Amino acid sequence: MIPDFNPTTASTITISVGTLGVLANILALYAIRRNSAFSNAFGTLCQSHAVANIGVCAAFSVLTGGVTLLHPTWHSTYWGRRSGQLIFFFWEGSLFTHLFAAIDRATVINFPSRYSRIFGGGTVTKVILLVVWAIATAQSFPYFITSCSMTFDVTRFTYHHGEGLCGHITEHYTDFAVSFTTVIIIWMLDMSSLFRLIQLRENAPFRQTKRRHEIQLFFQSFTQSSLLMTSLASSYLLSALDHQNKWYFFSTTTLSSLFAHTLDGIVVIVFSKEIRRKISGRLSMYSVATLSRRKSSIFSTGVFPTYWY
């Protein structure tokens, strides 16, 4: 039997998953910055994506789960409503970073000879990042208006758009229409890249190391896009199937979104052998250093006989 919905339990789950998401994406961000294989436009977009994921997970963990546990009435204040706005800001940053990552992968797979001319310079990448976060800022700015701002429903543990005309516009156009349109474009770009890869595989095997690396990065981006699409479908479509079951509604809205951003960071680590090697190397160095310190501490006490040294 499923227990009755409890906001305290939902808060604990949100904080736990959110904290895991923050740690996973910080680890991915650190590894990307230290990895020369990601010293290109796609690597910069991966960093932007990790920052957006950290923002979403941290906001859910602290401003949603933490505030609900400690001071739930704060959600109804003006500044309490900024939590939904902050989550939406980072969500938009993640969404449009996904879009440009899909454009990047589609270009390198469909037009490899032109890729360096388009994405080779650092200026283009900087402009892309400026555009991504400018759009995120513009999209989230209307939520400063009280009638537009999101409210958090503690009893259902999810966010709702404001009522009235402003809330209607932000929910159906700024959020829903923009998100689904962008996701459809991402899907079309990914499909064009996938079909091109199938054609190339039939004509000639992928023997070049650089080519295999670019393909691997595509499947990383494709997996991350699939997580984004699944989260969006869950929040808007699956959640509408049952509004009465609060656990189901929480799982298909807040939790599904949080899981998607958490898994995003894990996907970067799983798909990159270089990142896994760098992380395992760091962990090995830490383990050796810790073991050495412990041995030094034990032997310095003089507890053991001298012939043990």
Concise description?
By secondary structure, the chain is mostly helical.
Helix content: over 70%
First and last CA, distance: 60 Å
Shape: globular
Q: How much strand content do the residues show?
A: under 5%
Number of helices: 9
Can you count the beta strands?
Answer: 2
Radius of gyration: 23 Å
Description:
The protein has 309 residues and is an all-alpha fold. 76% of the residues lie in helices and 2% in strands. Strands 1-2 form a two-stranded antiparallel ribbon. A hairpin with a 4-residue loop joins strand 1 and strand 2 (158-160). Helix 1 (7-34) crosses helix 9 (273-300). The chain starts with 6 loop residues before the first helix and ends in a 9-residue tail after the last helix. The chain crosses the membrane at residues 12-32, 52-74, 86-103, 115-136, 176-197, 217-241, 247-272. It is found in: Membrane. This is G-protein coupled receptors family 1 profile domain-containing protein.
